[in-house]
Amino acid sequence: MVTKVVMPKLSLTMKEGTVGKWYKKEGETVEKGEPIVEIISEKATYDLESPASGVLRKILVEEGVDAPLNAVLAIITAPDETLTEEQLAAETPQIVEPLEEKRVLASPAAKRLAKEHGIDLSLVKGSGPEGRISEEDVRKFIEEKRGLLPKIKEIIPLSGLKKTAAERVSTSFRTAPHSTVMMEVDVSKAKELHEKLEVSYTTILVGAAAKALKQHTIINSTLEDDRIKVFEDINIGVAVATENGLIVPVIHNADKKSLKEIHSILNELTEKARQGKLSKEELTGGTFTITNLGMYGVEFFTPIINPPEAAILGVGRITQKPVIVDGKIETKPFMILSLSYDHRIIDGAPAAQFLSKIKNFLENPELL
After folding, report:
1. Cα 151 to Cα 173: distance, rounded to the nearest angstrom
2. Number of domains in the chain
């Protein structure tokens, strides 16, 4: 029996994925449920399991190649089963060839100038329609080679995680009108809780945000087909920096967990994110996101909403500031929180009320 290995849909916004690594070669035996191929998508890597036992008869999408959703990546058959050329042709997905493998499009003047200077046109980036190379493109290439323009040290392909990240932030900023409110928070008591329970500040922020979302439900929503859908579950994603880019693992039902539980789950997700071992469930279903740049010395910033969510909380570094207490000058630790929100769904007042609620929880953590 022929079984297809297809590109999975790992999130609502996913349109394509990249084949990272095949764990089996053609002709090798596979068991149902064992990892068969690495898929790069949604800012993380995901090991796709074999849908059946048998022989990996044919790999249709090679490593490093992008493929659309539901494209057939490979075919598994029974050990004694063969495939016909017609079957293979019918299942092979239409993959867009890399630019360098396409026929070079260039104007006659560009070709003439390139020939005069002995330039390979496949190395020139065209600025015209479908990458067509103009005479000016060739002149710029010549000037660059002569050192008149800055030399390129490295070219990083916009593919896999980086391509997904670029598409997501572009979509978010293009479709969702962003607005941001900021508040300064006294984290004296939160610092005491951090030291007493030995949990991270991010853990405390997740707990505070989860309880605030329970009271301000419009923040925990999405806009779909001119309808605002308010989520029942409170699933908080926490942005994690890795060598391959930003990944957002999700703490599901965060409002029903203690700070100790959140801390344990967060540590596990962070480690798995940096190892590229997050599961599909750990990457999907987020309803709100927290991103913390405080460890890099950033005081405040305006984060971009993680689609299809309605808001995201940015966290800055903790700084000591002088304050007057009972007529005396003291120093206390403060941090600035930034809430970016989709103005189609949330107005300024509800956003401010929600952020104020988080501030209240952080300044009175016994409420957590």
Report:
1. 31
2. 3
Whether residue 308 is preceded by a cis peptide bond, meaning omega within 30 degrees of 0, is yes
Question: What residues make up the domain containing 351?
Answer: 176-367
Q: Give the CATH number, domain containing residue 135.
A: 4.10.320.10
- Are 138 and 208 found together in one domain? no
41 and 125 in a single domain? The answer is no
As annotated, the active-site residues are 343, 347
Q: Are residues 290 and 196 in the same domain?
A: yes
Cα atoms in the Cβ-side hemisphere of radius 13 Å centred on 40? 20
pTM exceeding the 0.85 threshold for the entire prediction: no
CATH classification at residue 309? 3.30.559.10
**CATH number, domain containing residue 37:** 2.40.50.100
Q: Which of 90, 126, 123 shows the shortest CA–CA distance to 106?
A: 126
The span from the CA of 187 to the CA of 193, in Å, is 10
Let me know whether 127 and 250 are in one domain.
no
pLDDT per position in the chain (368 positions), as tens? 789 999 988 776 677 888 888 999 999 999 999 999 988 765 567 789 999 999 999 999 988 788 888 899 999 999 888 777 777 776 666 554 443 344 678 887 788 788 878 888 888 989 888 788 998 999 888 887 766 656 667 767 766 666 777 777 888 888 889 999 999 999 999 999 999 999 999 999 999 999 999 999 999 999 998 899 999 999 999 999 888 778 999 999 999 999 999 999 999 999 999 888 888 889 999 999 999 999 999 999 999 999 999 999 999 999 999 999 889 999 999 999 999 999 999 999 999 999 999 999 999 999 98
